[in-house]
Each structure stands twice: as structure tokens, then as C-alpha cells.
Amino acid sequence: MGKAIGSERLGDLYSPGGKTKKRREWRGVADTFYDYTRWLGIMKMLATYLVRPHFLKGFLRYRWMLNYIAVPHMIDKHTAGLRGNHLRIAHEEYDLVAEDVAKLLNTAFKADKYCGNDEELSKKIVVLDENEMFTIMCGFRNLKAISWETAAVYVSVLLQGDGVTHYLDVIQEMGMPGDVCPMPAAEAGVVVDDDIPIFGACAVQCNTTCDGSLMGNGIMARRYEEEGIPTFQIAAPLRHTEEGVQEYAAQEIRNAIKFIEDNTGEKWDWDFYFENIKRFNEENRLRYSWMEMSKTDTPQVIGANLALYAETTYMAIAGRIQDFLDADRRITKYAQDSFAKKEMLVPEYRHRAIIWGVQSQYYTDFLPWLQNCWGILPLVDMLSLVYFDEVSEDDPEQAIYDIAKLYQEMIMRNRTHGGYEVLLDDLWRFCDYYNADMVILWEHISCKALDGMHGLFEERARENGIKLVWVNHDLMDPRVVPRQSIRDDVNRYMRAVL
């Protein structure tokens, strides 16, 4: 054990066959002290919110809130083995996301009719989808955008792998087939189990990625309507690469804005929108600079630390919060400093990998495991390769088309829709761009779109001389494909093929 990276066998920190650490990782005096103080900061932040009456009531009422006990452990899993600037980058990312989710829960419980029942606050909230760009809210100065799905389902699984299995069982008992994607199935299960906070002046949904999502949206919309919460569905075009659909897409955004105005009494504010979108553009530029470093021999911001943070800043924050831009600037300074010194994240780099497909939500620390166990660098993932074009900061007419484009090409949707070129052909272009010799291809067994192209991926991998490793998972249900089975897919390939 010591200050140097790779000086300790990370598996020895855990009891044999267990999930609980025997002790914290020793990283040298300076890094251990820094890591421990950040851990204390997370504990203090959680305690600060938990003592609020409406928050405590929400914690005791909603089953999924038990998963939040694991917040410090989740952050520990994603900082394993890190030292120096890389440790600080990870804490900048995860600690800020944890605080933002706590604020989300605080606002939700304060407005929730079952907890705080603040009706005036509720009238200022627009409920949005989990898999939806929040850019539509950048022009409403006095409104709040909240996704209860993010807190109840998405974050729950990140914190505790089996965090939503109860809701999957509930919805399957109601007759839903077991091969539906677990994300919308779990969200529907939360609604059926009456574990959904009730708040908001209106709700805006989007035809996100698949038929399962549309099914889940329908169940949620019906529940909203029972509570007098009107719902608007943005029907973003599927063929987002075609110019002919852009006028229709822009009109959908105009309709959604008018719907929000009609149901809240608030008016779209272009000055406020452009204020937010300037931050959004700068965040994209900074994140793009991190990914440019990954083209070199010494990448700095990679793997789950890029993926989870990018999903939050790009979709859920979308330039609306200054704290995230400030964090991005600090992360960039850390990354540039380590890049200039040619610092490595792990002692040995064996393979440079692109992570493709829909990633497992119950095992996001699989990517740190790849680099720590096998020296496989997860340079960039499919979900982080989004729409990086600058959006207008001063032209209202162009801005509507920009928002429409962001909705069409938001995370995951930009690869699962738009034709096979964006899912199949682009992969090999990115392999060349990042000088990658390996692809870790997630095979989400409930995602029919990707499974249908299995043979095409293998054929193209052979043509391009790329090592292709298929890794099976079931997104949010670890009972179907356990974490050990995910590791075994890689272990078998590394031992038998390489």
C-alpha cells in the first residue's frame, strides 16, 4: 500500500465474496486525507437534507429512498485506485452530482402532496422524463424542472444494483412481459406500486428510445392525469440525420413551449435562455477537450467518470446551473496538468477500448474494473458521443431548431435512431479516431435493436482488425445477468483469445 498507483491489490480491501470494504484504501497521506475529507463532506450533506421534515417524510414513505444510504459507497467504487489529479477529478464529478440529486429530492418532497405539500412550489414545477433533454426549460426563469424517475429509478440502480427489482416484479405481476427493457418497466412498476411523488403544474414527455419507453410514458401520463397534471408528448423525429424532418421537429418544440406557458402562466424568456445556453456551449467545449486528450497515449477523463458525469451535465443540467460549469473548469485544469506531466491512471495500459451499446446501470464500476484488473482503458463510451455542434447564443429562430436537434440526438437516442450508420458505421470511425484496438460491446439482452445487429458488428470488427468483446447484461436487473457474469465475459476473452 502507498502513494503510487497500483501499489495495492484493490480486491484485498473487501471481505471474500462480500460487497463491504474491510477498510478504506490507503493512498498516501495527502490523497488519503483529501479522500476522507470529501467522504465526510458527503456524509454531512446527506445529514443536512435528512433532518428536514419533508425530506425525512419522503425517506420514510418511498421504498426506493433506502438505496440512498449507499451514496458514499457508490462514490468509493468509482474512485478505486485513483491518485492525485485523477482522484480530484472523480470527486469533482461525483460529489457535485450527489449534491444535485439531493437538491432534486428536497424540492420534490417539499412539493409532493404526500410530504411537504407546498402547492405554490408545485405550480412552478414541470415534470420531465428521465431520458429527456432539459434544454426545453432553459427559457423559463421562474420554473423548476424535475424528473422523479431519475431519483426513483436511474440513481437508485447506480447506488444499489438491485435497487428496483421490487418494481420489476410488481409490473410483471400485472402482466408485463419479462423481456421488456427494465428501465421503463421499473418506472411503470413505481407508478403501479404508488411509490411516485405527486407534484407539478404539468408534465412534458418525449418519445425517447424504444417502444418500452413509450409504454412507460403512457402509464405515467395516465397517473398524472388522475392528479390533474396535464401531459405533453414531444414526438421527435426518428430519422434525425435527414434535413427534411427538421421543420416538423422545430414545430414540436414550439408546441411544447406553448404548452408549458399555457399551464404555468410563465412566458419564455430569450435572455434567460441565451444566458443558460452559453454555459451549455462552454460545458460541451470543455468536455470535448477531455475527449481529445483520449486520442493520445495519456488520456485523463475516461470511463464511468466521463460517462455518468456527462449524462448529468448534458441532459439534466443543460447549462442551467453555474456550479457545474465551475466544476468543469476545475476538472479541465486538473486534466491539463496531468496531461502535461504524462500521468497515467493505472500502472499499465494494454488495450485502448471504445465502450459501445447500452451500458449496464447496475454495474457502472465495471469500467474502473476494466482498467484496474486488465489494463483495458475505456477511452470513451457511446452515450458520451453526443451532439457537440455549437448552438446559437443570439438567434431566437435558429435556437428553436437547435433545441429540436438536441432532442433528436440526445444521449442514446442519437445512436439507436437515425439508421444503422449512426450505430454501426460510426463505431469504426471512432475506433480510428481514438486509435482504439478493442471494442467492449454491451449486449443489453432486453434491447432488441442492438441484438439484431450482432453478426454485422462481428463482421465489421474482423474487417477493421478490432478485438470485439461482447458483454451481456440486463440493464437494471442483476438477477438475470449477475455482476460476476459480466466480468467473466471479459475474463474468458482475455484468457482464451488473447
Indicate the topology:
Layout: H1 29-50, H2 53-61, H3 71-78, H4 84-111, H5 119-122, E1 125-128, E2 144-146, H6 148-159, H7 165-173, H8 182-192, E3 202-206, H9 211-226, E4 231-234, H10 246-264, H11 270-293, H12 303-317, H13 322-340, E5 351-356, H14 366-374, E6 376-381, H15 396-408, H16 413-416, H17 420-433, E7 438-444, H18 448-451, H19 454-464, E8 467-473, H20 483-497
Parallel strand pairs: 1-2, 1-3, 3-4, 5-6, 5-7, 7-8
For the biggest sheet, the summary is: 4 strands, parallel
Run of helices and strands: HHHHHEEHHHEHEHHHHEHEHHHEHHEH
What helical percentage do the residues reach?
40-55%
Helix count, per DSSP? 20
What would you call the quaternary organization? single chain
Which radius of gyration do the C-alpha atoms yield? Answer: 22 Å
Beta-strand proportion: 5-15%
- What structural category do the secondary elements indicate? alpha/beta
Number of strands: 8
Mean pLDDT: 92
The strand order across the widest sheet is: 2-1-3-4
What general form does the structure show? globular
Distance between the termini: 30 Å
Low-pLDDT parts are: none
Tell me what the structure shows.
- The chain is of the alpha/beta class and 498 residues long.
- It is 53% helix and 8% strand.
- The strands form two sheets. Strands 2-1-3-4 form a four-stranded parallel β-sheet, with helices on both faces.
